[in-house]
Amino acid sequence: MFESYWRKMGDKCTVVIAGYDSLSYFADTKNLCWFLEPKLEGAIKGLHRAVGNAAADDHHVVVGTGSSQLILAALYALSPQDEPEPISVVSAVPYYSSYPEMTDFLRSGLYKWAGDAQNLDTDGPYIELVTSPNNPDGVTREAIVVNRGQGKLVHDLAYYWPHYTPISHPADYDVMLFTASKCTGHAGSRIGWALVRDKDVARKMTKFIELNTIGVSKESQLRAAKVLGAVSDSCQRSGSLEFDNFFEYSKNLLAERWDKLRDVVKRSGIFSLPEYPPQHCLFTGELTVAHPAFAWMKCSESIEDCVKFLREHKILTRSGKRFGTEQKYVRLSMVSRDEEFNLLLQRLLAIQGRD
Amino acid sequence: MFESYWRKMGDKCTVVIAGYDSLSYFADTKNLCWFLEPKLEGAIKGLHRAVGNAAADDHHVVVGTGSSQLILAALYALSPQDEPEPISVVSAVPYYSSYPEMTDFLRSGLYKWAGDAQNLDTDGPYIELVTSPNNPDGVTREAIVVNRGQGKLVHDLAYYWPHYTPISHPADYDVMLFTASKCTGHAGSRIGWALVRDKDVARKMTKFIELNTIGVSKESQLRAAKVLGAVSDSCQRSGSLEFDNFFEYSKNLLAERWDKLRDVVKRSGIFSLPEYPPQHCLFTGELTVAHPAFAWMKCSESIEDCVKFLREHKILTRSGKRFGTEQKYVRLSMVSRDEEFNLLLQRLLAIQGRD
User: Fold this and answer.
1) What is residue B353's predicted lDDT score, i.e. its pLDDT?
2) B18, B20, B66 ranked by CB distance to A213: nearest
3) Tens digit of each residue's pLDDT (9 = 90 or more) over B116-144
4) Fewer Cβ atoms within 10 A, N terminus or C terminus of chain B?
């Protein structure tokens, strides 16, 4: 979906890397995160200042190979090292479908998946993953079990950008995760970053990445620096053409898609979508509603297995079961290519026509 | 050390990446390793054909964020999934100093570090990491415990290239790991690759990388494809200038450094270095000796703590203890920049002068 914007930008974000550039493992030996390119750190802080979505300046920046690696790095850094039992990792239902498998696939003795944050059944320490806006349902979230004692929080803010949701306040949590994939669409670069308040936690996350991949691609970091810098620059250009401002351009695209989807869904009589309350957005200065990257669609009670039903109509979705909830919910992507999204609308419309 | 070569190559390996390139997570949905760039796969297979160091064509290629990630992916893929006890991971002393920590830092229930392969005390399944040529001592190795039953082997062949060691045969093991860091010097790119015979093992390694980082930087893959392609091309140019052939150029640099180091060490009377037997190299067609990327230096019995002794002379080394053996051994880098290497020689010479 973002490709059209970057094509319009032409060669403004082109990077040129010579054969002799960036040979070393190191980027800045004086930085706690020694493999973080100074240009990328500057671009990240500049972008958060331009958007106002996170208090970046008093946090340490840790770069990761996508935010997946940073979720694992945060679990490692926040787990007690010398306990006989692994710490419980929870997230409120519906939660990001990859959390359980990511947490448990190595059967770590440091942390283990414990399911829905609502049902946390320990008085001991735990880590809560707070995804806001939430994947899959786009809802703005706060921690659920934060006041229950020894909780540590990881805020996955991958979608806390003005094209997806109103920016209500600059987030200022202990560990905040972001990713270029969701911010600018550059998923192939595998660049995520964490803003970490505590120095020791940032150091341990850096250690995780050192043991896991000995740092993060320099080429991707340099390119992400250029792309994030271009997005920051575009935020300053208020008087120019609409598509110049990355977030406005992308918000308009998403709003248009959501309007079309809501129209088709309304006509169907079979499906329904969440409503999002209008909120004042600090970035646009307007009252806006969320336009999430995913649609969390509920199917009528008459349909038993919604994924199967939609697959029969050639629509691929992810079942609510994967997100810890009922199979009458499915997740649809709102950020696919135009052709794909239009096909989705056509096929949904065909169902409504037939049933 | 390799920088001078790449500078001489000028813009032959320059990559240009536009803002709209490589946005997707996917590289080739039909490939088992769905995030592997077809250009990189082609360059890897082409390079192994040009050098003759590994039978790549009948193996699956799995790309990783450096070979560190592939070591972990291999442990995951080769571990039994439903056993109550973790599988033992061993390597012969002296072993690569990061193996123990990489294996154990998440306290996985799938695998655990069990130390020196010579002392393996299990009749059950195990994984042996075979590093050949070995880091730290440059010795050509075979598996130690391969005939003891349920052993699985991972061959870490990071240094099995003609600038470091004679190529005696095309390696044809089940799981073979390589990395751009050691082959061409591009450590900042974090590109490693595994050649994997078994389809299921390759699929599980791919799954590990999916859960760990959802793929590998596209920018790094595209650049590595160009760099490895240039190295392959340089191998064909036998009649041209010496520095044109990457491996010959690098081998000459290393041979020169080893000569200088051996001279200084000989004069010292305090230190000694391993000798490597001359072997026929299939790549050069000559009888050559190894010129490892590290020098494994033994200190005289009179020096109790060799690292401390050398640090007092402003020489930073890694202790034999870190490699599972005695502290009278230290590892020195042979692939540092010229200035650094010359300083090392000067300081070693000064010790000899004083003692």
Assistant:
1) 56
2) B66
3) 999 988 778 999 999 999 999 999 999 99
4) C
